[in-house]
Write a structure and sequence with these properties.
The protein is built from nine helices and eight strands. The chain has one domain: Alpha-Beta Barrel (TIM Barrel), CATH 3.20.20.70. By secondary structure, it is of the alpha/beta class. The protein has an eight-stranded mixed β-sheet with strand order 6-5-4-3-2-1-7-8. Helix 6 links the parallel strand 5 and strand 6.
Length: about 325
């Protein structure tokens, strides 16, 4: 895989600083049952990096002592961490809002029986990847048969109450472009998703997030090999939206890798950019001794991906109604 970091520096991206910490986004490991073309984590079935229980105990300690209200679990497939259910149950018991970034197909994998029921019982919010509502497009991006497996997973979740109005079980779908383009307007695409999935498969969901593909790791390497990296960066910069800068996720979120080291965001984690532009590795346990509000955030040219067009974050578009 081609290293994208040299292509992203130096950078003229505006300097930004942190607000109050609200979300701890924890990567439980790079192991995944899929290997998607757009994956900025380079996750897959052969990855061995997995967060161990002592590190998870530090996560729980920080959640409690720092009074963080939201735990956002990512991977790979976060559910493949053997301690996933224990962590979710412990955080839920503390009153923490838990989000699981689920690829849907994990729900039907051998060894994960009862996972959907567990998530519903714990009232976990699901953010589920479905990069298109067309079967051929999804399978081209994520692998043969993934779309059908995903629809089966969504139907199962609907039966448990996920995505159904009044159930309190929130189900969000995530769209990623197929290639080096910006996502279409989130609101209009959500309507198209809802109409297609409801009419063709009787599937319901609460909302859709559109997320821009970031020029790092697997996707960035693919762009370089296709000689499209520079043109994609030109597109991101030309589409810069200053209004999105105030809402970027790194202002209120910290990303934690499988070893317990912290970064300003998930993308910085994949690039190995130290937290707070300090130049040195910072472990999660050190956060309890630091005042981080107002601290600088490490930025490079990939940050234009979060501020292009409508803006993009783990919570979808930042400024709806903006023309792409």
């Amino acid at each position: 895989m081609i290293d994208t970091l040299p292509r992203l520096q130096p950078s003229d991206f505006p300097s930004i600083r942190r607000d109050r910490l609200e979300t701890l986004q924890v990567n439980l490991g790079y192991l995944c049952n899929q290997r998607c073309l757009h994956c900025h984590v380079n996750a897959g079935p052969n990855r061995t990096e997995i967060m161990d229980w002592p590190t998870i105990e530090v996560v729980l300690e920080v959640l409690k002592k720092a009074e963080i209200r939201r735990l956002d679990l990512t991977g790979g497939a976060p559910e493949m961490n053997p301690h996933f259910r224990q962590l979710v149950a412990a955080a839920s018991a503390m009153g923490i809002e838990v989000i699981d970034r689920c690829n849907l197909t994990i729900l039907s994998e051998p060894g994960y029986e009862g996972l959907a029921e567990f998530l519903a019982a714990q009232r976990v919010e699901l953010v589920a990847s479905l990069p298109c509502y067309l079967e051929d497009n999804v399978d081209a991006q994520r692998g043969s048969g993934v779309f059908r497996q995903s629809i089966e997973g969504l139907s199962r979740l609907n039966k448990l109450g996920y995505g159904i109005e009044g159930s309190g079980l929130k189900l969000t779908l995530v769209y990623n472009p197929q290639g080096p383009t910006l996502p279409p307007a989130q609101q209009e695409l959500e309507t198209a998703y809802r109409d297609m999935l409801r009419d063709a498969y009787n599937v319901e969901f609460n909302q859709l997030f559109t997320i821009t593909n970031m020029p790092v790791n697997r996707f960035g390497s693919t762009l370089i090999s296709q000689n499209k990296f520079d043109s994609y960066m030109d597109l991101l910069k030309a589409s810069y939206n200053h209004d999105a800068l105030s809402a970027v996720m790194c202002r209120n979120l910290i990303s934690v890798d499988w070893r317990g080291y912290v970064y300003d965001c998930d993308f910085n984690q994949m690039l190995g950019l130290p937290f707070g532009a300090t130049g040195g590795a910072v472990h999660l346990r050190e956060l309890l001794q630091r005042e981080i509000e107002g601290a600088p955030i490490a930025v490079l040219d990939h940050c234009y991906g979060c501020t292009a067009g409508q803006g993009s974050s783990c919570g979808g578009a930042l400024k709806t109604g903006v023309s792409q």
